[in-house]
Amino acid sequence: MERWAGALPWRGLVLDAAERIGSRVHVVGGAVRDVLLGRAPGDVDLVVEGDATALARELDPAARVHERFGTARAAAGGLVLDLASARSETYPRPGALPEVAPAPIEADLDRRDFTVNAVAAPLDAPAQLIDPHGGLVDLAARRLEILHEASFRDDPTRALRGARYSARFGFELSALAADRVREARLETVSADRVDAELALILDERVPVAGLRLARDWGLLDGDLERVRDLLELAESPPWTGRVDPMPAALEAGEVRCGVLARRIPPRARRLAELSASRRPSELASAARGSTVAELAIAFLLGAEWTARYVEEWAAVRPAIGGEDLIAAGVEPGPALGAGLRAALAARLDGEADSAERELEIALAAARAAS
């Protein structure tokens, strides 16, 4: 019981609210698994035998509820809790979203992905675990076991979650799970759902380990070394905080998974083909308008000058403006634009170290364009 006390600081608040509305609440899934492994629980999922939306409102009048699905998110004790009414699931066809119906906690556990996530801790007695599928035995054995033979056919994304858990905890697939994992037909799942699972893998401490397992299991393909390189690049200057690793890493590695097929952006390839010996103004002009992800991928493909563009060239501005050219007699129009572009190029190429020199170069370009 002691190990649950620190893990569930909000327990009293939820129990009081549940008693007021006559519901019983269980901690389920990853939070139970993490506590049993001696880890601090991450996201906490609560299953309510009763109306989860009513409990959420009892806890937090501003709770976000989804009546149709019987789910809610509420603030309690300084934390955000996810609540769901206990339910059963049936799958009309492989890969489809499930059809749900109210059910007791045991039936709710039946719909979980792996036995180690199919353990519930009743909030009023968390030490009295509900474990209908032998999850505690599998947890002790560091084994990922599916609940039934059709698990991966019903929801192929479970296979990707298995790769994530295996990489994070060092778990091995059971003989049954290893035999069935290649039945996960990810092509029956929407690209958005696959994308969401891959994003979770990329958010792991060692993301490529999960991707490698998924590749070994026949779930995806791609250049995972380049995925790793992009993830590392995103954490180093000048890219830090500028690149969203998802989906840039998948694009860099051209990862293919089910109906999802990430490709290196054509613009990144074109930038990589430019010689670094070109003038800075020419390279900056080619890079202008690119996303930071495209620039980062081009860097990995050999265009290391894109780092200088991000760090330096993108912020360069001419010392003169359109009003200076107009005052010098240039009419608004194409000639004005040509003059400003020439001034910027001169600044980038080191050919103008003063506003006067920029104006001279800009006026010459404007006259030539008139």
What does this entry look like structurally?
The chain has helices at residues 2-7, 11-21, 30-36, 52-59, 105-110, 135-140, 151-154, 157-169, 175-180, 191-202, 207-216, 224-233, 245-252, 266-272, 280-287, 292-300, 305-311, 322-327, 334-348, 355-369, and strands at 24-28, 45-49, 64-66, 71-76, 79-85, 87-90, 99-102, 120-122, 143-144, 172-173, 256-257, 260-261. The chain has 370 residues and is of the alpha+beta class. A six-stranded mixed beta sheet has the order 3-4-5-2-1-8. It has a two-stranded antiparallel sheet with strand order 6-7. A two-stranded parallel ribbon has the order 9-10. It is elongated and about 85 Å long.
Terminal-residue CA separation? 84 Å
Note the beta-strand portion.
5-15%
How would you state the average pLDDT, rounded? Answer: 92
Strand order of the largest sheet: 3-4-5-2-1-8
Q: Tell me, what's the shape?
A: elongated
Instruction: Outline the biggest β-sheet.
Output: 6 strands, mixed
Could you tell me the radius of gyration in angstroms?
28 Å
What characteristics describe this protein?
two-stranded antiparallel sheet, six-stranded mixed sheet, 370 residues, alpha+beta, 20 helices
Please outline what is shown here:
With 370 residues, the chain is an alpha+beta fold.
